[in-house]
Amino acid sequence: MSAPKVAPQIEAAEPDRVWFRFMRLHQRMLLQMTARIRTLGLSIPQFDLLSTLTEREGISQSELAERLYVTKGNVSGLVDRLVQAGLVERRAIAGDRRSYAMHLTPEGRRLAEAGIRTQRDFVASTLGKMPGPDLAELDRLVLLWRDFARAVDADPAS
């Protein structure tokens, strides 16, 4: 007679171990996406900027910096290079002589859309293989972790 099956026990996870696993996974995914985006002739920051403009074209460099979580100086240099490459245009904003609206050129839009397809394919081949309930639970946990991080930002003493 065989022994009865016992449900596997879930071990308590240590926050430090989970943190390192998450960071290593992030680094692996970033390296994999970087290689895929490079085949389009783009860096990850360039792709981030172009894909952001597909969501909301005509925003200022300041708004772009906020959306990308980088400094205005970083965005300025990045936009300069993308303008030189013929992928982004700066257009004057009526009534504001200091700011410009950022717009994609047709080639910039084509590359942004190709990058978005590349990203969707990568996500489908990795995260997309996760069963629906597990994906929903992961989403719930990531949002919870994000909320904890936001709370620390709001109150650095915590």
From TrEMBL:
PROSITE patterns: HTH_MARR_1, HTH_MARR_2. Coiled coil: none annotated. GO terms for molecular function: DNA binding; DNA-binding transcription factor activity. The keyword Electron transport does not apply. Keywords: DNA-binding, Transcription, Transcription regulation. It holds the Pfam family MarR_2. InterPro entries: HTH_MarR-typ, MarR/SlyA-like, Tscrpt_reg_MarR-type_CS, WH-like_DNA-bd_sf, WH_DNA-bd_sf. GO terms for biological process: response to stress. Residues 15-150 form the HTH marR-type domain. This is Transcriptional regulator, MarR family.
